[in-house]
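quick one
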Amino acid sequence: MTDLFESKADDWDKGDMKQMLSQAIGGAMVQKVAFQPQHHVMDFGAGTGLICSAIAPHVQSIAAVDISPAMLERLAAKPELQGKVTTVCQDILDCPIAEKHEDKFDVIVSAMAMHHVQDTDAMLQSFYDHLKDDGKIALADLDAEDGSFHPEDIEGVFHHGFDRSELQSKLERVGFQDVHFDTATTVYKDDKAYPIFMVMATKA
Ligand SMILES: C[S@@+](CC[C@H](N)C(=O)[O-])C[C@H]1O[C@@H](n2cnc3c(N)ncnc32)[C@H](O)[C@@H]1O
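structure w/ S-adenosylmethionine:
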């Protein structure tokens, strides 16, 4: 599989927008999700670990799931994540990681990764299957936009954000309950505003 983030990995953490976004989203997750010291968390599309860094002090362990070896290599080199975060470089939609109950997750978080996954229904089903009973999701991504957020010729962007009510219906169809949206932050680019939602829900 081509690593679409290989050329971006080295400079990912240097981007002001990436830092602003991960601080706002990571902060919203820490504030809104009742993380517990014994929690086993999955960060889906973890990239270089900006969100893991915000969450790691509050939980026991994080599985950083991503399909980009280059992004995960940067994550694995971060001293503050040693011993807390393990990297999982695989497409969990095709190859799930949680087989037994004790391998399943208390919380699944994700920041700005869902628009890179073509089949949203399959992705949400995979999140549901990887969670323990009563497990929670906290997923942040772009609200529906006109396609101007990314450059036109970019590869691997399958969704121009997400419509909140459509995403809520999809989550409820899979079996999630207590679906609740917040606005985590807003990105301003070329005089345009791009709100970023964070949706939380519980496995029924
Ligand atoms: C925009 S980056 C966000 C990275 C990180 N969450 C952050 O906020 O800095 C999207 C990430 O999703 C990953 N990704 C794309 N498709 C994926 C998939 N099917 N499974 C797991 N990760 C995926 C990419 O490799 C990339 O690291």
